[in-house]
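ARCHIVE CARD
CATEGORY: sequence design from structure
SOURCE FIELD: tokenized fold
FIELD CONTENT:
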């Protein structure tokens, strides 16, 4: 066996312990950093969930479809028709949306 190979083989455990400890410290710091960044996002998700929880299913469908999937009223109308099997005009959908937005504002301003 050559000398460099022997040195590596003999110091492998010490180096492995050092590397593992350094990696663990680095990963622990990264997890802490990511948790700090995630906390405001968790708070926002909680607010959105509280707002959506105050709505009835019809209002939720309209809000989620328009604001989270496709901001086109023709698309919202077709989704509404598929779910409820009842046609609604775009103005009716907007009125339902407006009422839902007011409910959500009331929830967030409490």
């Amino acid at each position: 066996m050559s000398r460099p190979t022997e040195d590596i083989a003999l110091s492998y455990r010490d180096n492995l312990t050092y590397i593992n400890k350094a990696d663990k410290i680095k990963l622990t710091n990264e997890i802490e950093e990511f948790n700090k960044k995630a906390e405001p996002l968790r708070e926002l998700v909680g607010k959105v969930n509280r707002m959506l929880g105050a709505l009835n299913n019809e209002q939720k469908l309209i809000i989620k479809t328009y604001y989270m999937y496709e901001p086109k009223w023709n698309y919202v109308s077709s989704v509404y028709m598929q779910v409820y099997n009842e046609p609604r005009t775009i103005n009716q959908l907007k009125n339902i949306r407006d009422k839902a937005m007011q409910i959500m504002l009331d929830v967030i301003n409490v």
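CARD ANNOTATION: The radius of gyration is 27 Å. The chain has four helices and no strands.
SHELF: design records, drawer C
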